[in-house]
Write a structure and sequence with these properties.
Layout (H helix, E strand, L loop, with lengths): L6 H4 L13 E8 L5 H10 L12 E9 L2 E9 L8 H7 L2 E7 L3 H19 L9 E7 L11 H10 L3 E4 L6 H33 L13 E2 L12 E2 L5 H5 L12 H4 L5 E2 L6 E2 L26 E4 L14 H4 L1
Parallel strand pairs: 1-3, 1-4, 4-5, 5-6
Antiparallel strand pairs: 2-3, 2-11, 7-10, 8-9
The chain binds guanosine-5'-triphosphate.
Guanosine-5'-triphosphate (GTP) binds next to helix 2.
Length: 326
């Protein structure tokens, strides 16, 4: 029998989905082993800190919460940080990625950097722009200030370099630290969704006077250079998002892009910019309605858990993720 405590065994599950909030925010935690990903997840879900967890667990949990007086279903995926082949899946699933390191462990910071690099590289090999992702660099174990080896300014500098959000927190101290982290993440995702809605409506206005060129006749794609002023997120394109797209009944889906064009259409979208086609028509698509920001936060305690199968480890050394896992 494992000496570790399963997260599932410590969380009261709540299987009814009938009354769950409609707004959903998917959050995935990535990072080296032992940086405290499971501890942060459990703290958010249960307000408790437990010392040992099954290190090979990969689970998704959900918790109805209220952020700025708006109900939201926060889904959290805890990963065990060993399988490079899972990274594209995580990125596709997530609205926000928390790349976690321990402020007491130099190599965990280096691995966080490798994640940022890998995600940036990966984004360059992706296809149709459908998903705007919030990235956050997260320093954990703030309660161990006396053992700190990564200065806060170093984390901030790297986050600025990658144009992502930054936060330091602890799973071992007051619940408010972790609550603040997840609420901030929800706010960042909402901001991002609002930004997409706003840029889509501007595009709709401008494209109403533009001749639409059929996708199949377009030879080249181009990405406008970034005019970013936000430093809270990196946006990039993700492939095979037809499930999400098909639920958007009021936005016409483009016809499939020929395979030989897909490779040419992949770009990293910097904050406040977007992928567009040569004709000025847009491939950016709306993922959710705008949400108004409001005031104070309260928390509900319903928690659910669903298990995703543990994945096999890969020994592949050829992917862009190699340097993370070697
Ligand atoms: N002092 C302190 N210890 C922490 C904190 N977060 C986690 N820990 C401890 O660090 C160890 C690793 O925590 P985990 O949550 O299992 O780390 P993990 O990143 O999920 O590790 P894997 O599941 O192996 O990827 C455990 O002993 C935790 O109790 C924290 O904020 N402060």
């Amino acid at each position: 029998m494992s000496k570790y405590k399963s997260i599932n065994s410590s969380i009261k599950t709540h299987q009814s989905t009938a009354s769950l909030p409609k707004e959903e925010v998917n959050v995935v935690l990535l990072g080296k082993q032992n940086v405290g990903k499971s501890a942060l997840v459990v703290k958010y879900l249960t307000k408790r800190f437990i010392c040992e967890y099954d290190p090979f667990l990969e689970d998704t949990y959900w918790k109805p919460d209220i952020v700025d007086q708006q109900e939201v279903l926060v889904k959290v995926m805890d990963t065990y940080g060993k399988d490079e082949k899972r990274l594209p899946y995580y990125l596709k699933w997530a609205d926000a990625v928390l790349i976690t390191y321990s402020i007491t462990q130099q190599d965990s910071f280096e691995i966080a950097l490798a994640y940022l690099d890998a995600i940036t590289s990966y984004s360059k090999s992706l296809t149709v722009s459908t998903n705007e992702l919030v990235l956050m660099l997260l320093g954990n174990k703030l309660d161990l200030e006396r053992l700190r080896v990564i200065p806060k300014c170093e984390g901030e500098a790297i986050a600025a370099k990658f144009s992502c959000a930054f936060c330091e927190t602890t799973a071992a101290d007051d619940y408010e630290y972790v609550q603040h982290l997840f609420h901030r993440t929800v706010r960042e995702v909402r901001k991002e969704r609002e930004r997409v809605v706003a840029s889509n409506s501007i595009d709709e206005e401008s494209s109403s006077t533009t001749t639409i060129i059929p996708m199949n006749s377009i030879v080249n794609f181009h990405c406008p250079s970034s005019s970013s002023s936000s430093n809270s997120s990196i946006h990039f394109t993700l492939s095979n998002e037809t499930d999400k797209l098909s639920s958007l009944s009021n936005i016409p889906l483009p016809p499939p892009i020929p395979v030989n064009l897909i490779q040419k259409s992949t770009k990293l979208i910097k904050p406040n910019s977007q992928i567009s086609m040569k004709s000025s028509s847009t491939t950016n698509l709306l993922l959710s309605p705008p949400i108004k920001a409001g005031s104070p936060t309260t928390t509900t305690n319903n928690i659910s858990a669903s298990t995703t199968p543990n994945t096999k480890r890969s020994s592949s050394k050829t992917s862009v993720f190699y340097k993370i896992f070697k």
